[in-house]
Design goal:
Length: 309
């Protein structure tokens, strides 16, 4: 199969896993990444790397980048809570750049444009699980920018020509995750502390609930969306919530540590529950998570010891 995929944000955490998976299956890969938060030096040598900020690309630039491309995986975005990122830059990268990409992809009759959106497009803080049938009500500029990107794909000027899929991602974790480019993951930061012999930290009472999904399951879901014949929006999450107290307890066990967690001042996540409903995802894609949280944590911890993270 002589497929060529364009992966924007391909040097980021999820992007690198996706690029490796595509290459292993014989797909030619072109990566666009600014290198600001992604780790371009960790990309495989057999992919083509274009160092560029998607916010700076013109329609003509996108045209050149989409030459001979069959599938686009659009992962690049300005991230929530990244130092130096303004509201204007969020909208420019996450909204207008997506508009330009979608327009050119439609003109070129790209087989599929897979767009990674976010749970922040919902704006929900629980307790109900988030379903694709819910009316989105984002409460951050980041969430609004990702929702705008979703709506761009449906723009009437070129919707009839564009084949698209949207994945609203929940809390993705796995080997090789790092802290740059957004909210510092509870798993990343506390494994970092445990490895240094420091007590893991829990904000507030630790009863805030998150939906963690292993990166390999996300990559598999994105690739299934690329092959799906219809335009569709799905959640990619585990479908199960874990309290932070439970997450830290499991991390201590996996690491073999005797460290006792320390509770510190609560933040805005106190009392929240952010969990995906994946019934629709399963029904339309036949996708369900394969990596349990315990197994996923083991793989993250073991990868640290091998110098992957």
């Amino acid at each position: 199969m002589n497929t060529t995929a364009l992966v924007t944000g391909g040097a980021g955490f999820i992007g690198r896993h996706l690029v490796n998976d595509l290459l292993k299956s014989g797909v030619k890969v072109r990566v666009i990444d600014s290198g600001e938060t992604g780790e371009t030096e960790r990309l495989p040598l057999d992919c083509e790397l274009v160092v560029a900020d998607i916010a700076d690309l013109s329609i003509n630039d996108w045209g050149d980048l989409l030459d001979d491309v069959d599938v686009v995986y659009h992962l690049a975005a300005r991230k929530y809570n990244t130092p130096g990122v303004t509201e204007q830059s969020l909208l420019s990268a996450n909204g207008y750049a997506t508009l330009n990409l979608a327009r050119v992809a439609a003109e070129r009759c790209i087989r599929k444009l897979v767009y990674t959106s976010s749970l922040y497009a919902y704006g929900s803080i629980g307790p109900k699980a988030m379903s694709v049938s819910d009316v989105p009500n984002p409460i951050t500029v980041y969430g609004s920018s990702k929702l705008f990107g979703e709506h761009v794909l449906k723009t009437k000027d070129f919707a009839s020509q564009l084949n698209w899929a949207v994945a609203r991602l929940f809390f993705v974790y796995g080997p090789g995750q790092f802290a740059e480019g957004g909210y510092k993951s509870v798993i990343f930061s506390n494994f970092e502390r445990i490895a240094a012999g420091e007590q893991p930290l829990i904000r507030g009472d630790g009863n805030q609930t998150l939906d963690y999904i292993f990166v390999d399951d996300v990559v598999r879901g994105l690739r299934m969306l690329a092959d799906h014949p219809e335009n569709v929006l799905v959640n990619l999450g585990s479908g199960f919530g874990l309290k932070i107290n439970t997450v830290i307890e499991k991390m201590v066990t996996v690491s073999g540590s005797q460290l006792v967690p320390v509770h510190v001042e609560p933040d805005w996540t106190a009392g929240t529950s952010r969990v995906a409903s994946i019934d629709f995802t399963t029904s339309v894609l036949g996708w369900t998570p394969e990596v349990s949280f315990d197994k996923g944590l083991e793989r993250v911890w073991n990868s640290r010891n091998r110098g992957v993270a």
